[in-house]
Amino acid sequence: MTPRHLRAHSVDGIGSLARRRCMVRLSAILATALVPACAVADWHSADDPFTLGVASGDPTSDGFVLWTRLAPRPTDGGGMPDLPIAVDWTVSTDERQTRIVRRGRATADPRLGHSVHVEIEGLDPDRWYWYRFTAGGAASPVGRTRTAPAPGAPVPRLRFAFASCQHYEHGLFGAYRHMARDDLDLVLHLGDYIYEGSSAGRVPRRHETKEEPVDLIQYRNRYACYKSDPHLRAAHANFPWLVTWDDHEVENDYAADQSENRDDPAWFLQRRAAAYQAYYEHMPLRRASLPRGPDMLLYRRAAFGDLATFHVLDNRQYRSDQPCGEGRRGGGNMVANCTDRLDPSATLWGATQERWLEQGLAASRGRWNVLAQSLMMAQFTSRDASGHPVHWTDGWDGYAAARTRFLARVAAAKISNPLSIGGDIHSFWASELKVDFDDARAPVVMPEFVGTSITSRGRSYESTLKLLPANPHVRFFDSRQRGYARAEATPARLHMAFQGIADPLDDGSALRTVAAFVVEAGRPDLERA
Ligand code: FE
Ligand code: CA
User: 158-528, what's its fold?
Assistant: First the structure.
């Protein structure tokens, strides 16, 4: 308990009484816990508890998730008393919160870092709403979000952006400044929302500590550090988000229970449990994603009428270990002649998620079916000095048999306009995915767009450029800009623009379109716009 954040009279009065009453209810297992009925309502905070801002996500045709987390001392454990705190919320049809259509009281539970996840239902489809929280005598910023169109309803247009890889120490979040002002219906985050590792050398700003987080408090502090950036908070406050993770939300290149450093898997799963819980606590996710020990259900779908269905995928939790590893070091490697990457028993999604995806693609009513996942799917081959093919084993190239299997099934199933979006490699890529990448005449199964990083440093432009002629299915590459990707889907076509900022060290840096592409419905080929 932190008495200075409580009124003197509530420390002994409300505090101890509420604590005793709550104990019985709070003894339930975390994963099955429901909202405790005994939250403290007359708590007053000396400092603003809404330092992390507000967010919304996982929209349906009648609602969405509203999120905040009370944290008056954001990078120092949060600074909250060890009690459940009542948080009031309102949803309105106007920004000034005068036409309120829903209101309620939620509980900021200390076991979930005083995060709040409110699932709103029963609203009108396809319209904007505004929302706000109040607690501790303070009001949060007003957030804006929207419902999806009704299931199967005709939708003339959907605009969405996607982002990834936002190393806090590599730059300012100027890309989010532009995104927050963009005209969008939805934002997707495709992973590396935080980085567990800190950078050596000169950087424009520093994490709250250079130590890697391993426990829950440390991961909470890291998320709070990232959310201290006002442009990130603004992008959250202006649109509903659909989020998934990649590796750095836990540890570089981890695979299921295998850490990069080959830690004891039992220990690593404890670290993963802490990291997954902190992720849940800081994202606008539904109760279905509440972590259970080291496990957390993150793959899910969001549909926008008859126009688009997003299949949000988890590329880390269920994968087999990277192939062709070098003894004690786990994670990815650049490996020549790695035949184990062709092992058909290897999996990136796990059998259950793979089946869920294939069934969902077949049943989808969306004209566009977007695979939202963290990695580049396209094959990318380089050569060693002897001319042997070299592949990066942490990406899809390390799981080539699983990729072939999936793309062959998509091709056979005649899915309506599939496309993949990804991140991870800090550069823009537009590619044509094929069952056999080595056959130049093989038909295109779907287009793929990989967005650059928000800030994380990119790969070498010149050396990668030299490899493009040997990878003709890669139609565009540029690693020189930080930024995001912006898509506009209509029934007839999908337009994709790669949006780059000139200088990630300047959060006022201008935005320009680096390249743009068009995909015509019914034709998976890429065309430059
Ligand atoms: Fe990254
Ligand atoms: Ca990554």
Answer: Purple Acid Phosphatase; chain A, domain 2 (3.60.21)
Distance from residue 245's CA to the centre of ligand 2 (Å): 9
With tokens 């002002």, the residue in question is 181
Same fold, 12-144 and 158-528: no
Neighbour-count burial for 290-321, b at 16+ CB within 10 Å, e otherwise: bbeebebebbbbbbbbbbbbbbbbbbbbbbbb
Ligand 1 centre to CA of 173 (Å) is 15
Taking the chain, what is the end-to-end CA distance rounded to the nearest angstrom? 58
| Tens-place pLDDT, residues 51-72 | 999 999 999 999 999 999 999 9
Give distance in angstroms: CA of 383 to centre of ligand 1: 24
CATH H-level superfamily of 12-144:
Purple acid phosphatase-like, N-terminal (2.60.40.380)
Domain boundaries in the chain? 12-144, 158-528
Task: Report the share of the chain in percent with pLDDT over 90.
Answer: 90
81 C-alpha to ligand 2 centroid (Å): 35
Q: pTM for the complete prediction?
A: 0.94
**Cα(409) to centroid(ligand 1), Å:** 29
